UniProtKB/TrEMBL annotation:
Residues 26-402 form the Aminotransferase class V domain. PANTHER family: CYSTEINE DESULFURASE (PTHR43586), CYSTEINE DESULFURASE 1, CHLOROPLASTIC (PTHR43586:SF8). InterPro entries: Aminotrans_V_dom, Aminotrans_V_PyrdxlP_BS, Cys_dSase_SufS, PyrdxlP-dep_Trfase, PyrdxlP-dep_Trfase_major, PyrdxlP-dep_Trfase_small. It comes from the Bacteria. CDD domains: SufS_like. It catalyses: (sulfur carrier)-H + L-cysteine = (sulfur carrier)-SH + L-alanine. This is Cysteine desulfurase. Gene3D superfamilies: Aspartate Aminotransferase, domain 1 (3.90.1150.10), Type I PLP-dependent aspartate aminotransferase-like (Major domain) (3.40.640.10). Its EC number is 2.8.1.7. GO terms for molecular function: cysteine desulfurase activity; lyase activity; pyridoxal phosphate binding. Catalyzes the removal of elemental sulfur and selenium atoms from L-cysteine, L-cystine, L-selenocysteine, and L-selenocystine to produce L-alanine. It comes from Candidatus Planktophila lacus.
């Protein structure tokens, strides 16, 4: 089946509405959250209408159906990532998944593979979203570990020239973004993962901006943990995923405690169920997980390779079109080599917030600010940017309208 973004748009009811006095919605903020197709909306509401009960509890039919819905979704996620079902932990978001890892590692006892002591090293990069920086920053502060990082070049690439001095025999954790939510840069992982494993460290991937947009196979990447969110992959809010190698999840201590995650309990002690149950206490986000499974099936049917190809074509079109606008500066790579569909830019002396409001009045939804990546925007020499991010339902017409409105903003602001 050939890829047709116009046909795909028809699956998303939000594009039927008009905004700002009857204007067509041009949604260029999928880097923040994606829109949802009818099939996902229906799956979530049908769960509440027809199957609502507490999963993993009760022997009645509704409870069985709720449990089957969640476990079926777990298999969908595992297949989508090229992992195994017992390696999929459902969380409320990728932020929670990354914090789960940081807090669990921080509570690992002496003798555990994950135990951190003063002088151990945690490696991140200047490209990280706050969700994959602050948890490790705080873990280093709690344990006495040393936080180190790869710097970003003026072109918006990771500087890997000093990889052997950044990742050393003292390194225990390397936690990196797969694709920058600001620059669109896709991080080359082969040498990073090899060096990480050569020194005996674990490799953690923030894949929020990659898994929804390109084929990602955890076995091929040879990483140890991965996190991403459902709401960025045409799925519901309130559900995320932590994937981890089964043997590592077994050794990792639990993060939250309560029902469902235990093997046995007395008044003085408890033992834990095997992973992934060990990390899923309480009643899960059932309807959201069911909708998430349907979302990934939807993306699979279209084809992640086709989606990625479409986004690269849109990104090239946008880079070419925007580079011809006077005083517009694009942050990050200026070509599509190892680059995804997030384009952040400044426009002369016009503040990004003012530009964002002007574009909103034209029916164009973009993101403005530091994009939860404050160290990165500082490194690139700006306080804030305007960001347009593309997905499977965007077209070149959307980009044309963006560029026309940018030119109009230049005239308006003088």
């Amino acid at each position: 089946m050939s890829f047709d973004a116009v046909v795909i748009r028809a699956d998303f009811p939000i594009f039927d509405r008009k905004i700002r006095d009857g204007k067509r919605l041009v949604y260029l903020d999928s880097g923040a959250t994606s829109q949802k197709p009818n099939i996902v909306i229906d799956a979530e509401s049908d769960f509440y209408r027809l199957h609502n009960a507490a999963a993993h509890r009760g022997a009645h039919q509704l409870a069985e159906e709720a449990t089957d819905g969640i476990e079926s979704a777990r298999k969908v996620v595992a297949d989508f990532l090229g992992g195994k079902e017992d390696e999929i932990v459902f969380t409320k978001s990728s932020t929670e998944a990354l914090n789960l890892l940081a807090y669990a590692i921080g509570s690992a006892p002496t003798g555990n593979k994950f135990h951190l002591k003063a002088g151990d090293e945690i490696v991140v990069s200047e490209m990280e979203h706050h969700a994959n920086l602050i948890p490790w920053q705080q873990l280093a502060a709690r344990t006495g570990a040393i936080l180190k990082w790869f710097e970003v070049t003026p072109e918006g690439r990771l500087d890997l020239s000093n990889i052997d001095s950044i990742i050393t025999t003292k390194t225990k954790i390397v936690a990196l973004t797969h694709q920058s939510n600001v620059l669109g840069t896709i991080v080359p992982l082969d040498d990073l993962v090899k060096r990480t494993h050569d020194v005996g460290a674990v490799c953690i991937l923030d894949a929020c901006q990659s898994v929804p947009h390109m084929p990602v196979n955890v076995a091929d990447l040879d990483i140890d943990f991965l996190a991403f969110s459902g709401h960025k992959a045409v799925g519901p809010t309130g559900v995320g995923v932590l994937w981890g190698r089964a043997n590592l999840l077994e050794e990792l201590p639990p993060f939250l405690f309560g029902g469902s995650m235990i093997e046995s309990v007395t008044m003085t002690e408890a033992t834990w169920a095997p992973a992934p149950r060990k990390f899923e206490p309480g009643v899960p986000n059932m309807a959201q997980i069911v909708g998430f499974g349907v979302a990934l099936k939807y993306l699979t049917k279209i084809g992640m390779g086709a989606i990625h190809k479409h986004e690269i074509e849109l990104t090239k079109y946008a880079l070419d079109a925007m580079s011809g606008i006077d005083s517009l500066r694009i942050l990050g790579p200026l070509n599509t080599d190892m680059r995804g569909g997030a384009v952040s830019f400044t426009l002369g002396e016009i503040h990004p917030h003012d530009l964002g409001q002007f574009l909103d009045d034209a029916g164009i939804a973009v993101r403005t600010g530091h994009h939860c990546a404050w160290p990165l925007t500082r490194k690139m020499g700006v306080a804030a940017t305007t960001r347009a991010s593309f997905y499977l339902y965007n077209t070149t017409e959307d980009i044309d309208q963006l560029c026309e409105s940018i030119l109009a903003a230049q005239k308006y602001f003088g």
